[in-house]
Amino acid sequence: MALLEVEDLATYFHTREGTVRAVDGVSFSIDRGETLGIVGESGSGKSVTCYSLMRLIPEPPGRIERGVARFDGQDLLKMGKSDLRNIRGDRISMIFQDPMTSLNPYLRISTQLIEAQTTHRDIDRKAALFKAIKALEEVGIPDASNRVKSYPHEFSGGMRQRVMIAMALINEPDLLIADEPTTALDVTVQAQILDIIKQRQERLGTAVILVTHDLGVVAGNCDKVNVMYAGQIVESGSAEQVFYEAKHAYTRSLQKTIPSLQEKGQELYTIPGLPPDLTKPINGCAFYPRCPFPKTGAAETGRPALKDLGNGHCFADCGYCDSSGSIESVLAKGDTDDIHLPSEGAGA
Amino acid sequence: MSDHRDDFLVLEDVKTHFDLGRDFLTRKSKGVVKAVDGISLTIKEGETLGLVGESGCGKSTLSRTIMQLIRPTSGKIWLEGKELSAISDRDIRDVRKNFQMIFQDPYASLNPRMTVLDTLSEAIRTRHPESKGDDLLQRVSDLLRKVGLNPAQMKRYPHEFSGGQRQRVAIARALAPEPKLIIADEPVSALDVSIQSQILNLLKRLKSEMGLTMIFISHDLSVVRYISDRIAVMYLGRITELGDAETIVDNPLHIYTKALTSAIPVPDPNAEHSRERVILQGDQPSPIDPPSGCNFWPRSPVEHDADMKENVPDFVEVSPGHWVSNCRFCVEQNAATPN
User: Fold this and answer.
1) What is this model's ipTM?
2) Model pTM greater than 0.90?
């Protein structure tokens, strides 16, 4: 049985401007020791998915509308507050994008690392401090026995993120959710942090959900990948499948936009337009208005369901994405105007 | 060096230091931030120079120094043979319309209380003070069309635009005074990948259409490689390596450049699993009292000797146009012998 099975998760935000369907029917599963990457642009629902699993969605305006998230047999979405508190930080922990706002600036690192342990374990403070120092050493903080007494502001961004990782892993959780853990960091530090997460994961057998917008980070670190667009998964599969045999037009377009994969001097491929407004109901494929493939009369009602290709590779099939034509051939035909103005207003 | 002064933009040993003042009680100096610490550069007309480096390496201070928003502590800057660093604060505004800047965050760099029309008109009037009425409207429309926005949207406020569109407005504003030099400071790092490529294409197109010279600052080497003719790699206020974009990315000499290129995640699982990484130790040291000598020694995987920790390595041209800070521990010596 998978460690975590999510089925048909939907989280909406009921705002004055209307109901934002941030996550609208997401299903996936993750096994022990596995790394699942969730990629997508901002607003695609990747972070809301994770926050929903941890039940960190501010309610109101947010609400988990439906779905099941079975973690080791228990449904995270229906769990009571105290059960939830027992699981958070113990069996499931989370790393956030900005390590400055997720550490308490008033408390020493030692206090925060000890608290993480005494809340969940029957452990005396001395032993907890000893473990804290060891945890800091394991994430590569030099002079850990002295540095443990520092306050968060005395650390650099990369060091703070290491402290976050040490804290998240100190109780040896079964599942680590990392929401853009390296987005705020420099590339050289990013490489160090991803390296540490990987090492610790191998030692502890933790399952990791890695949320990022960077396809490169996913390629190097994930076993499985979910590509999200407008609140739904549009493609999922092993890293190899998603990168080498991508089926969905969005995944393929996304790969085409990355500068490092392109010939210099050539114009970069751009996805025209903007992601859809999630307050309005989406009929048919959400990517339809931006899709490079010509199509006539795509599904009008409901969004296309995930089609399983039999080997764990799924994609939201509207019937047009899988056309054998490559993006290149489509591009060669029509001059893609890189500027598509949204005709009416512009969602921020 | 003097003949170089005829080039488009010349920097000669520019240093920008920030004095942190004295401690209130002990009167001891709190130190000096050496944000830019001796940079010499020449930029040709119509060229795009990419400036890469980690945060805190001085990229932005350097760009603000060129803009004369911060005056250099020492060193000289010439733009088209005119010495910028000698122009008085009052006269610099007149000159500044020749060089404009695009900032990272289009949410913060546009005045939220001014419509696009107001923002752009103000910028246009710096070049054409007499422009008003229909002529001004025409100029604003032309600019908006140029950056791919609908002129019908000119009465809107910045919050009515998406991030990518706002960045287009910011670009239009930078173009309004008809500058010759554009400094783009991380113009795409706040944007999503699909929007990022739109802006990169736009910048590239405008540059070739209008014959602009551009300094493109980013921490993302793959973006810089795509848009730049040459790349300068900065570390702790100095340039460690300078050369053609391809040379820097594909054949870096300095170990820091190697680490930087190898740290960029490639969206290709097989390549990611098989490639060699130079993983650096720790973070970039503080620019307050930075390490002496080859300033990279505290993080280098190769141990430096006392000499290189003491003396600043020479900046040598190893092959035509390819310069490197020639520390014999950071640069493989057989590769770096001038030929």
Assistant:
1) 0.73
2) no
